[in-house]
Amino acid sequence: MKIHEYQAKELFKQYGIKVPESVLCEKKEDIEQIIKNFSVPCVIKAQVHSGARGKAGGVKIAKDYQNALKYADEILGMELVSSQAGAKKVNKILIEQAVDIDKELYLSLTFDRANEAISLIISSNGGMDIEETAKTSPEKIYTELIKDNFNPLETVKKIGFNDSINGQIINIINSLYTLAKEKDALLVEINPLVVTKQGEVIALDAKINFDDNALFRHDDILALKDEAEENPYELQAQKDGLNYIKLDGTIGCMVNGAGLAMATMDIIRLAGKNAANFLDVGGGASSEKIEKAFKLLISDKNLEAVFINIFGGILRCDFLAQGVKNAIQSLNINIPVIVRMEGTNKQEGADILNHSGLKFTVVNDLNEAIEVIKKI
Ligand code: GDP
Ligand code: MN
User: Fold this and answer.
1) 106 is catalytic
2) What are the b/e assignments for 301-325, b being 16+ CB within 10 Å?
3) Is 189 a catalytic site residue?
4) Which ligand ends up closest to the CA of 190?
5) Which domains can be identified in the chain, with CATH numbers?
6) First to last CA, the chain
7) What is the pLDDT of residues 226-267, one digit of tens each?
């Protein structure tokens, strides 16, 4: 799960990391009042779940009140098109005290599964062109695994600052590490982490991604979820307890079991098409859950067909058939629905579909499924 910069900065403050003073603004009519009580120069920052906002016109430095009003009015409500997240409507802006920047650094901690450790990435060449630096001068970016023999001072010394600044950076690394551990973050990133002309080290940007599978133990983090930023289909799936990921293809698929779901996506590919989604309805799904899953699937406007591939083990084929039949009856669907069922109560399931008065293409095996999908 992602959160906004302003929320991440609140967490940073709780962990003792310095951030500039700021106020969040969500309504056009509040802009004037907030800016009147703020000092200039200030920075107006679009709050959307995306990086590269600066390059997309979502971060602007205002030297005086007039410009602050103008930029705030422009950015709040704008459609921000970034290289990282496509088009996003800006529903919130952060109005932030500008800082006198001497140097922009990059600092992040990521969860490195292969090495079973948190990995630190640091560079004195931070800022908006970090991706470019990674390509052209990778030697300026240091990566270090935080394991038993990790010595932050040795790493920080490599980027060449004085003792006072090094000390501040080490404190920030320690705080970020504690935050990542305590809140189950997969990524905490500060870009830029700036050294000011006054010699202070401050986080000007803040990005945190949390481990979805650990959210059950962090109600405070879950409360930060901004539903407007989530994919609406995936949000509905979470509410219905389904494992669903939206994809770009045109063949909707409903499968039980993650392995079979992935194999099904391969089959669709073999037939020359692409899956519109990943959907694992799980082992013990009831016909009500199947109906919900089917309705979710079919709400995707790009579909050419639906392919249902179920291996009835714990999930009974008759439950599946009943759920699909109910969903189709209430939805008025006119795209082909291809069904392959195998396993428990296969015959009962086939009977329900065949006597439903609805049109299904029931296939006996996956080769047959490929042939049918090819013809769509
Ligand atoms: P991003 O493009 O989404 O990563 O947004 P950032 O929050 O990183 O802002 C983009 C850039 O704006 C930063 O790299 C800074 O160069 C600049 N910036 C942000 N805040 C300030 C500030 O207070 N003063 C100055 N001079 N520049 C700032
Ligand atoms: Mn940034």
Assistant:
1) yes
2) eebebbbbbbbbeebbbbbbbbbbb
3) yes
4) 2
5) 1-19+100-230 (3.30.470.20), 21-98 (3.30.1490.20), 232-374 (3.40.50.261)
6) 36
7) 999 988 888 889 888 888 999 999 999 999 889 999 999 999
